[in-house]
TrEMBL record:
Record organism: Cyprinus carpio carpio
Residues annotated as transmembrane: 148-168
Taxon lineage: Eukaryota, Metazoa, Chordata, Craniata, Vertebrata
A biological-process GO annotation: DNA integration
Domain Integrase catalytic: 1-145
Protein name (Swiss-Prot/TrEMBL): Integrase catalytic domain-containing protein
């Protein structure tokens, strides 16, 4: 369970393309149908167009009249998992667990700022080859890797490491940060 972010978000709407595994995660303030539909339209439809099908759990927000109207307007087939069986939406559930584990690693000083960390986490996830496909979700979605992907991945990974320096079992890692930064810049510049 996420604690409310400093920007007022308490939930994450996870949207996954079943074929490519490309995933978006939109921070939302609540789980009302209006909020979910607006995030769905803004985060997915306006970027990629309406999908052919939406598969979700049986939450009231996904079974609402508003969601049915949205699906009817865009000609979308709506399906849902069986009750109390989240494995029926396994890809999203697996990503939810991955996202939750990554957000748990945030230092205490960033815990309430989790919503601003989602873009970096999603970029890293979407540009990493998926075990089941052997390709990155980004590549399968767009037919190419993002420009400068390796460079961006190194910079993001290093910046995350530098910003997430934490005390582990009394071993203070903060002293390593000044030594990591020059090595990271050298590595990134050599790519």
């Amino acid at each position: 369970m996420l604690e409310p972010s400093c920007s007022g978000h308490e939930n994450v709407l996870v949207l996954t393309d079943v074929f490519s595994k490309y995933t978006l995660a939109a921070p939302i303030r609540d789980q009302r149908a209006e909020t979910v539909v607006q995030a769905l339209v803004t985060e997915w439809f306006f970027r990629f167009g309406g999908p052919g099908r939406i598969h979700s759990d049986q939450g009231r927000n996904f079974e609402s009249t508003l969601m049915k109207q949205l699906c009817g307007f865009y000609g979308i087939e709506k399906s849902c998992t069986t009750p109390y069986h989240p494995a029926g939406n396994g890809q999203c559930e697996w990503f939810n667990q991955t996202l939750h584990n990554l957000l748990r690693t945030l230092p205490v000083s960033r815990k309430r700022d989790w919503a601003s960390c989602l873009p970096q986490i999603l970029f890293c996830y979407n540009t990493t080859p998926h075990q089941s496909t052997g390709e990155s979700p980004y590549f399968l979605m767009f037919g190419q890797e993002p420009r400068g992907c390796l460079y961006c991945s190194v910079i993001i990974a290093v910046s995350l490491l530098l910003s997430f320096a934490v005390n582990l079992g009394g071993c203070d890692l903060d002293w390593r940060v000044p030594y990591c930064r020059p090595a990271a810049v050298t590595l990134a510049c050599s790519l």
